[in-house]
Amino acid sequence: MRKIKVLTVFGTRPEAIKMAPVVKRLNENENIEHKLCVTAQHREMLDQVLDVFKISPDYDLNIFKSGQTLSDITTKSLQGLENVIKDFKPDILLVQGDTTTVFAGALAGFYNGVKIGHIEAGLRSGDLYSPYPEEANRKLTGILTSFHFAPTEQSRENLIKEGYDDRKIYITGNTAIDALLEVVTDDYKFENELLNNLDYDGKKIILVTSHRRENIGKPMENIFSAIKEIVEKNSDVEVVFPIHLNPKVREIANNILKGNDRIHLIDPLDYLPFANLQKRCYFIVTDSGGIQEEAPTLGKPVLVVRKETERPEGIEAGTAKLLGLEKENIFKEIDLLINDKDEYNKMANAVNPYGDGTAAQKIVNIIVESSK
Question: What is the pLDDT of residues 309-331, one digit of tens each?
């Protein structure tokens, strides 16, 4: 049988993490000829993940520029990918998630008559502008997709409600779990000595992340003010906050949180140390999407500081709790998880709804079977 030509496209750190297990399985399969194209929508953070997983792109569009707009990313990706598609002539183009690279990749494939496989298909927040532009990207990509690789039953149901053919929807689990299980170890040593020296057994170490565009301003001020008051109230708590590089985020964080010796404001972490910090911490407060999937695998409760989430499975399973953005409620729920052991154990021991670490192999098997 002729080998199936598969082109994988991604451009950011989160995509690279979740695509890395898929890339490995594709490269191992004797029925597939695989090429990888990175847009480098993010440059430095993307390269870090490629190094961790020992992945080398076949095509690198290198589109990143300081101050780039969504239009810049879309047009440069479209133009670059058209050349790649004409050179490689793939049968299937794979994208993952909801970045602007994902939408541009799907559109480039569509324009050139290539079938699209969308990994992590069917996530929906219900608000086209939150998260922005991710909710629009994932919905627009869905329209162009031939293979919807949905991580959960909820994602499948979202797609069916929108009129997609159930025969083209495949529940696979989330590839984030595959990636996480590859890199987390009990004996991991951090390069940052502060992280090695924290008392993970004697203290309750809370990991905080916050970076979403829609939270910048008053919502972020509420989050950080609640965290500051939590530390002041609970002497057994320390906070580690790897601050996003966005200068607006850093300004708010420094204004509110700087100066407390139990709040550690550090630079962003690469994927490997961040994954292992998730394993060591007590629980996580975040507005990230991916962490809501990863932390349950490690038995870590997740408190989500957002108004809505496109990952309701974790909320329903009890691994995560949606707090909203009012300071009083954020404080109350964090304090509850610190001081109520029963509540903590209930969340820490809830069943992870996002899969068992075999999603990448399932995706590759579906591609091969569908081409017979």
Answer: 988 999 999 999 999 999 999 99
